[in-house]
Amino acid sequence: MTSKANGEYGEPKTSGHHPVRHKIRGAGYFSRIGPGIVTGAADDDPSGIGTYSQVGAQFGYRFLWAAPILLPFAFAIQETCARLALVTGQGLARVIKRRMPNWVLIVTVFLVALANTVNIAADLSSMAAVVTMFSPISQLFAVAFIAILVGAAEIFIPYHQYARVLRWLCLSLLSYIAVLVVANVDWHQVATGLTQIKIGWNRFDIAAIIAIAGTTISPYLFFWQAAEEIEESGQAPDTSQSHIKAMRGDVLVGMLSGVFVMFAIMTTTAATLNAKGITEITSPEQAALALAPIAGDAAGVIFALGILGTGLLAVPVLAGSTAYAVSEAMGWHESLERKPSQAKQFYAVIAVSMGIAVALNFIGINPMRSLVVAALLNGLTAPILMFIIWWLARDKKLLGEHASPWWSNLLVGVGSIAMAALPVLWLFAPA
């Protein structure tokens, strides 16, 4: 089936990305994990941290139930994207290009690229604000420096080396678990928030759900997950059941870590900021500054450093997913493993995306407004793309015996409908 898929639906693939990911358990797991953990960690980018902080500060423990509810949907869509890539040997945009009308491909890639670039601009702004908290340099200089540093690393370091850096940056998520430990959390209220679903019929509550869902299930993660599954490593693609099971474990661990950090941030800000009457957070760095006098200077510093670490992880994922989507749609050579001279257009997309993001900061775009725009674009794109992925995952001509199982189809299908329904509900809800 693999050779047919590779030969019929696109350029032949002679290599797979994770030949050593042959089992889930055992010593040395960290060296074997694939893009699942990086994808899950990148889900908690500075803009996501800002969203979760605002929800925790404004609503307290009330929306903690979103964490266990969203986890299976986030896992199912990422597992499906990985499955499509493993079986076809192609990235997500290439598969859409082969099986869907061109206008569908153009619209989805444009929206994803636009949302990603705006998101990068907001993330760079938050990271720079953290740098200025600890040094006398200006905000704009910090934005440019971080962008050049991250962009150069992504362009000039081969993926097999760069991936190790990304995996170690995942440890920055531990900072939010550390803050959770030192905060004075009311665990009885946590249990109530996790087990009792309370949604008011008003735009404030529905907007909070849209923000949480859109930040947790973001289109850029779909393209990144698929693309990194097929990054070249000199081995034949492995579509055995054992490898698919290992891929599933990798994705599960990644999304579990990302959703747990979401829970940790909302819980921490509920226990500190909301408990002290601070209900309005305009940026992630403001959350860090507000935490310091309440939970201690160490908590504020740890929270701030976590923003920097997750940004260093998420920004290259955002830029990389844009480059994969655009390059696959245009039929260009794409791979972070290739040298810049071997994939000029691919790396040019990364450079242009980063350059526009820096320019948005220099012209004075409001960081929080850019987050709202990015969240809106993600919210509009996600259900459309999820439905497309659901349709492709059921295509037995494309995937053969490796078509998605019923439980995955059910979760992705229900998730698509729910994500599409939320903006409609918001329109009809009272202010």
Distance between the termini: 53 Å
- CATH topology name, in short, is Amino acid/polyamine transporter I
How many β strands by DSSP?
Answer: 0
Mean pLDDT over the residues: 84
Which strand-content bin applies to the residues? under 5%
What is the CATH homologous superfamily assignment?
Amino acid/polyamine transporter I
Question: Structural class, please?
Answer: mainly alpha
Order of helices and strands: HHHHHHHHHHHHHHHHHHHH
Question: Which short descriptors sum up this protein?
Answer:
single chain, 431 residues, mainly alpha, Amino acid/polyamine transporter I, 20 helices, 74% helix, disordered N terminus
Q: Could you characterize the architecture of this molecule?
A:
By secondary structure, this protein is mainly alpha-helical. It has one domain (2-11, 39-428): Up-down Bundle (Amino acid/polyamine transporter I), CATH 1.20.1740. It is 74% helix and 0% strand. Helix 5 (66-88) packs parallel to helix 13. It is globular, with a radius of gyration of 21 Å. The relative contact order is 0.22. The model is unreliable at 1-17 and 22-30 (pLDDT under 50).
Helix-strand layout with pairing:
Blueprint: H1 2-8, H2 29-32, H3 35-42, H4 46-59, H5 66-88, H6 92-99, H7 102-134, H8 139-156, H9 159-169, H10 174-182, H11 187-195, H12 203-216, H13 219-229, H14 241-272, H15 284-295, H16 297-330, H17 344-362, H18 367-393, H19 396-399, H20 406-428
Helix pairs in contact: 3-13, 3-14, 3-16, 4-12, 4-14, 5-13, 5-14, 5-18, 5-20, 6-16, 7-8, 7-16, 7-17, 7-18, 8-16, 8-17, 10-14, 10-16, 12-18, 12-20, 13-16, 15-16, 16-17, 18-20
